[in-house]
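User: Teach me something about this protein's shape.
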Amino acid sequence: MSLILNIETATQVCSVGLSDGKHLLALRESYEKNIHAAKVTVFCEEVIRESGKSMTDINAIAVSKGPGSYTGLRIGISAAKGLCYALDIPLIAVPTLQSMALGALRSVEDAKEPPATPLYCPMIDARRMEVYTALFDQHNNEVRATEALIVDEESFRKEIKSSVIYYFGDGAEKCRDVLDHENMIYLDDIHPSATSLAVLANAKFLSGDFEDLAYFEPYYLKDFVAGKPKVKGLR
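Assistant: First, the predicted structure itself:
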């Protein structure tokens, strides 16, 4: 059975879980802003200790690869790569949007009468009316490619003619007034989590789908653009 440490820092959420196969043994999550650097390694130590395991028991490290926050992704992936190097174990990278879609899928499946062919639309805030998004079917397969989308009334117009679309994530709230259609259903409290990450990571572990530790980089989707410094004398 694979013992995997799962690290999710692609958004404001800092989530770390230790999983044994598909089963989560321990979880730590925080929704505070700008605490990833301070908390991620602490959370790693806590979930390992809570599970009665040691670092040397871990078979792989899984990390949410993006898209998402530039800083959050860098922190999580740097921590994951450092642990993999120190422990000489493989690195697993999981698409952030797919992991979010799996969490939403599980939530909807718990409903009494879910629609027959729903689509799942995770949204990560990319500022203004732009979001990182994709569409996934009821089997968690990507059916519309990941993109940086400026949301307007015509977004998803083709898909909502034939499917109910659930949309969620920290980018979805700002789109609620724009995506005003009876087939667009907003889901609250769906966020990136090591819980969903663990399921996808286990499948990748079993298939031997590992990253090149030396060359793997976050999936930023958009190029990083540095802002002008606000400190006097640095402009």
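Now, about its shape. Residues 96-186 form a domain with the Nucleotidyltransferase; domain 5 fold (CATH 3.30.420.40). The two ends are 54 Å apart (CA to CA). If you'd like, I can walk through any region in more detail.
User: That's plenty for now, thanks!
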